[in-house]
Amino acid sequence: MGKIASFLTATRGKNGRMDWTDWVSYGYLLMGVLVIFGPVLWLLMSSFKDEAEIQRFPPRFLPYTQETIEVEGYDTPLALYDIVAGEFEGRRLAQIRRVGLVAQMVDPNEPDVRLKVDIADREAIESVGLATENYTELFEKFSFLKFFWNSTFITVVATAITLMVNSMAAFGLSKYQFRGRNVMLMIVVGSLMVPQTVVLVPLFIVTKELGMLNSLWGVIIPAAATPTGVFLLRQYMLTIPDEILDAARMDKASEWKIFWRIILPLSVPAIAVLAILSVIWRWNDFLWPLIVLSENENFTLQLALNSFQGEMTTKWSNLLAMTVLTLLPIACVFFFLQKYIATGIASTGGK
Amino acid sequence: MRVVWLFLMPNVLLFFTFAFVPIFLNFLYAFTSGDQIMLGDRPYAGAANFESLSRCRDYLDPNTCERDIFWRALFNTTWFVALQVGFMVGFSLLTAIVLNRDIRARGFFRSVFFFPVMLSPVVVALIWKWILLRNGLLNAWLIGLGFEGVNWMLESSWAFAWSVFLSVWAHMGFYTLILLAGLQAIPRDVYEAALMDRASAWRTFRRITLPLLAPTMLVVLVLALIKGVQTFDEVYAFTGGGPGSATTLIIQYIYETGFAGSPRLFGLAAAASIILAVVLVVLTAAQFWANRRNIDG
Amino acid sequence: MAGVGLRGVRKSYGAVEVIKGIDLEIAHGEFCVFVGPSGCGKSTLLRMISGLEPITGGDIVIEGEIVNNIAAADRGLAMVFQSYALYPHMTVRQNLSFGLENVGTAKGDIAAKVDAVSKMLQINELLDRRPKDLSGGQRQRVAIGRAVVREPRVFLFDEPLSNLDAELRVDMRGEIGALHKRLGNTMIYVTHDQVEAMTMADKIAVLRSGELEQFGTPLELFNNPTNTFVAGFIGSPKMNFIKGHVDHADRAMLVLATGEKVALPATGFDQKPGQNVTLGIRPNDLQPAPSASLSMVVRSVEQLGTDSYLYGGLEDGTAITIHSPGQTQVTPGEKIHVGAAAASMHLFDTESGNTLRIS
Amino acid sequence: MAGVGLRGVRKSYGAVEVIKGIDLEIAHGEFCVFVGPSGCGKSTLLRMISGLEPITGGDIVIEGEIVNNIAAADRGLAMVFQSYALYPHMTVRQNLSFGLENVGTAKGDIAAKVDAVSKMLQINELLDRRPKDLSGGQRQRVAIGRAVVREPRVFLFDEPLSNLDAELRVDMRGEIGALHKRLGNTMIYVTHDQVEAMTMADKIAVLRSGELEQFGTPLELFNNPTNTFVAGFIGSPKMNFIKGHVDHADRAMLVLATGEKVALPATGFDQKPGQNVTLGIRPNDLQPAPSASLSMVVRSVEQLGTDSYLYGGLEDGTAITIHSPGQTQVTPGEKIHVGAAAASMHLFDTESGNTLRIS
Amino acid sequence: QEIRFMCSGDGVECEVAMRIFERYEAANPGVDVILDKVPYQGLLDTLPIQLAGDTGPDLAFVTDLGGLNPYYLDLAPYVDRKYWEDSYGGTLDWYRVGDDDDGIYGLHTGLTITGAYINRTLFDQAGVAVPSPDADWDTWAAVSREVAEKTGTPFPMAMDRSGHRIAGPAIAYGAKIFDEDGEPILVDEGFKGFVEKFVEWNNDGTMAKDVWGGKGGTAYQDGSKEFINGDLVYYFAGSWQVANFEQQIGDLFDWEVVGSPCGAGGCTGMPGGAGIVGFEQTDHPEIVAELIDLLASEESYAEYSASARTIPTHAAVAAKGVNYEGATPLAAAALNGWAAQVSKLEPIAFAYQGNPNNRAMFNITVQRVTQAVVGELSVDEAMDRMSEDLAAALAESN
Ligand SMILES: Nc1ncnc2c1ncn2[C@@H]1O[C@H](COP(=O)(O)OP(=O)(O)OP(=O)(O)O)[C@@H](O)[C@H]1O
Ligand SMILES: Nc1ncnc2c1ncn2[C@@H]1O[C@H](COP(=O)(O)OP(=O)(O)OP(=O)(O)O)[C@@H](O)[C@H]1O
Ligand SMILES: O=P(O)(O)OC[C@H](O)CO
Ligand SMILES: [Mg+2]
Ligand SMILES: [Mg+2]
Which CDD domains match (chains C, D) (predicted)? Predict the structure, then answer.
């Protein structure tokens, strides 16, 4: 049986030593970093590339920009090239313009002499450089802060409502035996079956009838009662021993108090999960806000983000920068909340 | 036990208004025709939409069906879900277990695995398109290693496989997180007892972890199945359903028929969504049934 | 008057009937102890009184009022759970104050009460720990504290001292007794500890597989058990039971299965000649006496320091325990003669197990 | 030789040191009982031996081998958890057979063993229930069964009988004793029950807040406690302690705080004249004797049926308990005189608490 | 009064239009035109729903010209019909439904024309002459292949994955799109003829198969990336790419507009583009009309075209030519090159673009032709499916 110290269950070699299960675990995790995070990292890099570099084949990991040089007599900086063949081999020249297969170039040290170079003979000098304008443009282009505020408002309020409403329902569905419980549960799970994409139009009609169009509430309220949340929390709450609730009842706790002081704290891991998910859902929502919100002052970041996708062209550089920017807040939220997932009640207060 | 309804009320109200009513309206749409958006403007069509969708000479050959794309999408979705749910649950369970260990830099690793969930589908698709393009990163790599490049996006089976991969990649973190929370809820002393009982790692997993994880597992299975069937955004942005219709999934069909198409055949789309929902209900009920022992703790 | 009454109370889990109709009146201010073998239904009964367990039949009466349909929280009881059921996410202090907060006690009062109770239970140093960082006995004391701090009209204790050491247990017994005196409220107490049962109880209820066997004061039960079950259950070590029959000729003479004869007290029993009876003698009442009629072979000896117990058997194998004060010199294998004073004898009908004493 | 050795073993939780360096050698096949006040570290020590709790310092030795770095599963022990830790999703039968399945026991053997063990524990009727459908005592028996069925080289029992009734407890004591005889393996047993400790143990280890106070056979501890702590802890009710000093003139005369004088036995103690000493007398050794020198006022009386205890105080308030066989007639408030045989006296240095007996 | 203008553009169209609207605001205190810039999908998918629900903007930038007709505000009562008919005669019809509709609904702000670009530098490197403007598809295919081969370029040709794009070449190959009664038929021998060629080219490597073959459904896919990277010799797209190429190709190579190849049906591409319309449900029809009318004035329109780099539809402006501000020589040449193509457009192309069902037909084309390209259907089957799909769509619409 050798090293049973259980790969699948143990929590690190009791005595701080690494055993094989730890090696396997770390190996797996590192592979995860490569496969899962590698592409994300690349996204991050790409957000610092200019449009041409983004479109470039084959793609390069680091963002490069062409080096330029100020040459006397020319208004704009000129691009620098190394000449690798032909007459001027070995020199470093700045290009004035290119006409067909021939480039007109100049040696920065002798600005007056124009040289003609075959375009195949030159090689651009590039260095790693961040196209920060992808980001700065965003702030110039739209009221980024306004959109940020709208997104934040929607996300925070909708998440708060979702957590509250869902956990209440989950409590009801997990800790009470009552007639209609299974029906309710089936309805909850049943409404998962129909994706929002499918009911967009009816949902729009309902929302319109309630006068919530063009208001942030039109985005917040319809999404609040996610069946996913109810289901997720309910299943978690099932694992909380009923005896603790009994104890609270003997302590003359009202049912509300039991919910608030016992069930909620004990469900923190599941609630953290739902909070994270809800934040992401609301923050990334696109289609529904697009229908509900037609006026720019109500726009969310996602709508702004998508406005880089035009009819015929997409401005990837800005879109990626915006993606990264919109990613940051939720990444922070995640990082903050994830530790609560690990606060499971390892040992109950019972025997 | 009246109080229970007080706890349920807010949710029930929201549900009724924003899930039930729309779904009911959607149901009504399924029996109308035309391209008008408002229900009132649409002529009643009886079961015509359902008939149209189900008219096939040979149900195994989509080409013989009146709505061939619907059937292709249905077949694709079946395969897609079977593969995707399997890999998804497997990998997220494995990952959750590893992340549940007392490892160093836990928060960092958790974040890593969760990161893709935060990305919008468009971006997910974009990233992987870059990697898989004819002269993308992967091929550059393969060629560097002396293999031949593959035109991943042009070969039906590869495009399909990568679509599965992509959606697992994008959503695995979600299920991992749920499972992680579920693992945390398993009392530690039960593991200690198993340790004293000399249970091997595998048996501890099989006999302790899995059964005690059952309520959570049900969440994961049900959600994975439902969301799997509903996969759309990222695959659509990735392949557009191609090559041809190789990766056209059912929601894409519904979306293109009813929402983005021209004319907008809401009725047909609604009918397709009802057929889909029926299938899902059956599958979910089966899962609940299989899990019935463990559902109520 | 916070008396508690059980009227034909029943409980079934599916087909399993675990409480089979119990009638019991506990007067206001009485300290009532439930004893009975493991699994006989004591905890279930407590939970039914508390309102946590719905009852299958009968009525539960508190202060003269039928409370069957009153929620647990509104019955005004406090309970110590056998499994503690502490709030795992709260510190000891929070565990103790939760109940008081629920009834809207002022902050200052809560602090004072928690303070007092935690001192009494010797857990005042642990107030900021969570249950998982406590030892078993410490947890148990928190569980007691949680009930005690609320000073309800009825207390329900489910084996509250089982995980405490002897000294602490004596202390706690004293504290609970004092509390009972001070509050004058009704207490229902489940225990397996003979000493607790005998010393704390005003009344003891002996349960056997869901039925009430006897209800009375400790000495009543000890001295006048209604049947072999109660006789065997009350008193430790258990009473010795020796089978025999009443001599056909002499009603006062008992013929044991081993053939030995024992004289019964002249009065007190209503035995009939020839009747199959069981003689009950407590280990403490059996004395080694060279001239006595019963001879036993000692199989094992237990030395408790203050006392010793000799375990052995009669000739026909009937197990016999005898008590000997101090540390004994008897060794296993020895054959000794024992006898008992006629006054200390109990006599039961062998078939029904019921006592033959005229009451 | 499955002996267990602790060599300077320590354990801290953060800044709290709960085991403060314990040295102990338990011989192979020995039945060793750990006793000590609630929270003194007994469970922690068991968990450290089992390997579930990493140790902060020192070595744990099993069969002569340092096992500090050997995983719990590989140490070949079985443990009954104080909190039971049953598998909630398995039936009793599955709970019992899980360990056997893990070591690849044949199906038929498993069934036979589970059968035997469940009969021994009287839970054979409950084999198809899950833990949540069991009573507290039934759960505890399942917990015992789970360990017992595996017949490991070392058993660790953490208060295994605390929730059982007296009769069952006697039975179980017998069964565990028989098991110990049959398997001949080492057993380490935590209990709060004096009777269990005294009757089952080959050796008792008395712990106090993480330190070992005394280690020896039950009677050794009872008769020759090394200090007031052990003297007070072993034996129930607790030994009476009366403060005084040795007469300056007569080494054999003790002057109590109340001014009363008591004669010490001529030999046995190494007291010095004038030394502050504490006299220890067990309740069982104090007899009411009209002529005796100590007078006490009885505050309360406990009637156990077979025995009675009188609680009272000396003139200066020192609490005194005395034992009286049978059912006493003394009532609270009475003033009685008590005395003890010189041979039954213990003498301790008041400052250090250590015994003054010459060993 | 608050006027909401919903807009989405690839470039600066929205901003330029707003610049002109601001003048109106200045002249009419109290009018506040607010730009709601939305993702293109907002215009395409959600605007119709909003309009059907009686919400949405007062005026908007639209591309589904005929499809939204039921919601349009008829500007006729507010504007000079003659001026409009004279200046925008060709495009007014695109916003109308049916023959007896003579409303004035929208101002076609930017005409687009489909057609091809070539990588001129590659031709130069290969030393291959650029075919004459009346060359046919086969010639272009042959030449592109030759250039690609000689220069080691991966793709000779590519065409955007769009029913709109393939329509021009199909018409040039004799597709009639409509029957004698003007009812859409989409498929005929001419259409099928081009599709057969197209499929063949995709499979023999002449066309970059990635573009059509790599997608499904009605998803849009273009080949601009390949072209920008110099991996493509001949790229069939449209006028809207100019700004994009100007920016991203920069100095990499020379590119040129070559328009549409010729066939039996002419040398036509497809017209298209976007316009600004007002909606019936507005509370301020007059202001909306005046705003659009202001933009329609010759002066404003010329300014708009110059700034937004669009091809004018205003007859007079087109005739005078536009001086595109700040454009590089390549881009300016390209834009004027496109303007010159307008005259080559066939009436069928105009009719097709003006048909309210055009979007359905484009979608059907893309979906089915792609299936033929990847081999899910034979060309014949694809054509049959197209006919059936079209019949079904026509049956459903209205
Ligand atoms: N995580 C922890 N942090 C701090 N102290 C702890 C922690 N866990 C246990 N303790 C303390 O360690 C001491 C020893 O606990 P242990 O469970 O070993 O006691 P015990 O002797 O078994 O007591 P009992 O008889 O009550 O079961 C206790 O005082 C307890 O409060
Ligand atoms: N859900 C259930 N289904 C069937 N039987 C049950 C269920 N719950 C409890 N029981 C049985 O009911 C009986 C009474 O249980 P209870 O807990 O009241 O016993 P108890 O007297 O408290 O025992 P202990 O002294 O061991 O705690 C037990 O035999 C138990 O096995
Ligand atoms: O197929 P699309 O989406 O490129 O449509 C083109 C537009 O109609 C051009 O105006
Ligand atoms: Mg119980
Ligand atoms: Mg303990």
Answer: ABC_MalK_N (cd03301)
Q: How many residues does chain B have?
A: 297
pLDDT band at B70 (very low <50, low <70, confident <90, very high): very high
Share of chain A above pLDDT 90, in %: 21
Ligand 2, CB within 6 Å, residue ranges: C 13, 16, 18, 36, 38-44, 82; D 133-138, 163
- Locate B149 and state its tokens: 């490049």
Structure tokens at A204: 């729009």
Burial label, A152 (beta-carbon count in 10 A; 0-12, 13-18, 19+)? middle
Residue E5 has pLDDT above 60, yes or no: yes
Would the CB of E164 count as within 6 Å of ligand 3?
yes
Class of residue C317 by CB neighbours under 10 A (exposed 0-12, middle 13-18, buried 19+): exposed
Please say whether the beta carbons of E47 and E72 come within 8 A: no
Could you tell me the two tokens for C286? Answer: 């059996």
Give the distance between the most distant pair of CA atoms in chain C.
78
Q: What is the mean pLDDT of residues C95-122?
A: 93
Could you read off the pLDDT of D250-271 as tens digits, one per residue? 888 888 888 888 888 777 777 7
Which DSSP category does E132 fall into? Answer: P
Q: What is the mean pLDDT of chain C?
A: 89
| Structural fold of domain D237-349 | OB fold (Dihydrolipoamide Acetyltransferase, E2P) (2.40.50)
Task: Tell me how far apart the alpha carbons of residues D12 and A214 are, in angstroms, rounded to a whole number.
Answer: 61
CA B222 to chain centre: 10
pTM: 0.89
CA D255 to chain centre: 33
Q: Are B294 and B218 in contact (CB under 8 A)?
A: yes
User: What one-letter code names the amino acid at A33?
Assistant: V
In angstroms, the Cα distances linking E248 to B137, E331, E332 are 21, 12, 15
User: D4-226 has which CATH code?
Assistant: 3.40.50.300
**pLDDT score, position A8:** 40
pLDDT in tens, B161-218: 999 999 999 999 999 999 998 898 888 888 889 988 888 888 889 899 999 998 899 8
- Domain ranges for chain B, please list them: 17-296
Closest CA–CA distance from residue A14 to any residue of chain D (Å): 6
> What's the CA gap between D339 and D279, in Å, rounded?
13
Tokens representing residue C256 in the block: 């044991």
Select from E35, E50, E125 the Cβ nearest to the Cβ of A101: E125
What H or E segment, with its residue span, contains residue C309?
Answer: strand C307-313
Domains D4-226 and D237-349 share a fold: no
| DSSP string over D192-225 | --HHHHHHH-SEEEEEETTEEEEEE-HHHHHHS-
Amino acid, single-letter form, for residue E239: S
Q: How far is the CA of D121 from the centre of ligand 3 (A)?
A: 82
Q: In this predicted model, what pLDDT tens digit does every residue of B118-167 receive, in sequence order?
A: 888 888 888 898 888 877 788 888 888 888 888 888 889 999 999 999 99
Give the integer Cα–Cα distance in Å for A37 and A31. 9
Q: Kind and range of the H or E element at C267?
A: none
Question: In this complex, do D85 and B212 lie within 8 Å of one another by their Cβ atoms?
Answer: no
What SS3 state is found at B5? helix
- Nearest protein Cα to ligand 3, atom 1: E162
In this prediction the ipTM stands at 0.89
Residue E162 Cβ contacting ligand 3 at under 6 Å:
yes
Q: How far apart are the first and last CA of chain D?
A: 31
Q: Which of A75, A80, A76 is nearest to A109 (CA)?
A: A80
Would you say residue D1 has pLDDT above 60?
A: no
| Structural domain spans, chain D | 4-226, 237-349
Find the mean pLDDT for residues D7-29: 92
CA distance B283 to chain D (A): 26
Measure Cα distances from C181 to A99, C31, C77, C122, C177 in Å. 109, 10, 17, 20, 6
Going by CATH, does the domain composed of B17-296 fall within 1.10.3720.10? Answer: yes
